[in-house]
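REQUEST FORM: STRUCTURE PREDICTION
Request ID: SP-0412
Submitted by: Lab K.M.
Chain count: 1
Length (residues): 310
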Amino acid sequence: MFNALKNGAFVRISVGSFLLTLAFMAQEVVLGYELYRITKDPLMLGLLGLAEALPFMALALFGGHLADRINRRTQMLVMLILIALASAMLAKIAPSLQESGATSHALWVIYGSVAVTGFARGLYSPAASSLRAQIIRVEDQANSAAWSSTFWQAGMLSAPVLAGYSYLKIGLQNTLWISVGLTAATAFITIFLPSLRAERSEHDGDMSLWISIKTGFSFVFSQKILLYSISLDLVAVLFGGVVAMLPAFATDVLHIGPEGLGWLRTAPGAGAVLTMLLAAKFSPTLRPWRNMLIAVTGFGVSTLVFALSS
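STATUS: Completed
RESULT:
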């Protein structure tokens, strides 16, 4: 049960993942809440998510290609420094945002910093995922996957609540500085990870970016079960995500303040942990397609209930 945790490098990268999740979620919760509190415009929340998602999606494939060709730890460190700098810019602009409102200058800094974060995450995530797989023995891969998910979910569960109460007690700027500190701590931990490159065959050396991406797409499209499951998940999340709108509901509908928003934002993580516990008892791989369809249907129904609820 604890095989993966006997690997010191795995423990370090998992603790780093936990701290980075705390940083991202805390920043997302308080920034979304403050931006909506000032503007009262739901579109601002959507643009906030879009500013991070577009560069992340645009660079994720390139990030994987890069991680197969350079030192993965170095790639992670550079991106963490970039994320910390972007978060520091948000912390610096926070007093101006609260005093002068959402001026064009403040919005440019906010959306620009979030876009830089998305850019860096698009290059960080593939390197971190591949390094994690590389430092774990094949026989411990399943165990490491379970522990990785546990560390990540722990961050997803605790960060929103802590961010909400932190905003209430010490304010927006100090909460954002905490996010900077958590990112810096992740970078410090990353320094002590193994310095590894991808294990490549002799045929990979001259493979260009576009050939590499084409090879990846060809593989996905040749594996129908992979293609259909990815497509189903994409459509469900793309048209069913309501998390970005939670600051508006917390402020205008429920009137529960930042600490209440923290509890709302942590609810999906709580449901995910409960499902993980059930999946440990009742394997979801026995009838994977049936179970996936049930899950997506449940996702859609709960979204409709949320939409119709007063």
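NOTES: The chain is about 80% helix and 0% strand.
Reviewed by: T.R.
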